[in-house]
Design goal:
globular, about 190 residues, mainly alpha
């Protein structure tokens, strides 16, 4: 559990610098330059991500069960996950979806975390998904309190929303049907129960 928690602290900590230490972040960008800051930020984030994935894998080998979700919650999770990949894609380029969601990546993170808390009840699951859910809620609240940043003046392209939706749903199918099992050893959609 140590590596999972350490990884979460590092990963979510780096992603929280703008929430809790905006002035320090800005001074580091001045000192290192935008590229230097992005490199440092990325290296630390990647180290945290590797630690949390490793720690989660270790914790799953000897799980502490906090609650046993009913089987049907897997179907609710699968349904809730449908908008996640389109929202993630919509965060990468100008879309009307992104404008409507305001912060599509945070919306995707909140849905992903909440959906997984519904169908997973081990201590490691609650720590992992609960931490991401709490972070995304705090980050979304803090965006309204931060000084406005320059946003892209680009208007959503004619097909950008279609690309986000179709591409996101294709990613969902690949992830639900193959990648989730390969990466995490769990088939998310299981029939029966």
């Amino acid at each position: 559990m140590f590596y999972l928690i350490l990884g979460l602290v590092i990963f979510l900590g780096t992603h929280s610098v703008s929430i809790f230490a905006r002035e320090w972040r800005d001074s580091m960008v001045q000192k290192l330059g935008p590229r230097g800051w992005k490199v440092l930020y990325s290296v630390i984030s990647l180290a945290g991500f590797i630690l949390l994935v490793h720690g989660y894998g270790i914790a799953r080998q000897d799980p502490t069960v906090l609650y046993n979700p009913p089987f049907w919650t897997r179907h609710v999770t699968a349904l809730l996950m449908l908008p996640v990949f389109p929202l993630l894609l919509a965060s990468q380029f100008p879309t009307r979806i992104g404008i409507a969601a305001k912060h599509p990546m945070l919306a995707a993170t909140k849905i992903w975390a909440f959906a997984h808390l519904l169908s997973n009840g081990t201590l490691a699951d609650v720590i992992l998904f609960g931490a991401f859910l709490a972070w995304a809620v705090i980050d979304r609240i803090s965006t309204g309190k931060r000084p406005a940043t320059r946003t892209s003046a680009k208007q959503p392209g004619k097909f950008n929303d279609l690309i986000a939706i179709v591409g996101g749903l294709l990613l969902y199918v690949v992830f639900a049907g193959w990648a989730h099992l390969k990466l995490f050893g769990v088939m998310p959609i299981v029939h029966g129960g």
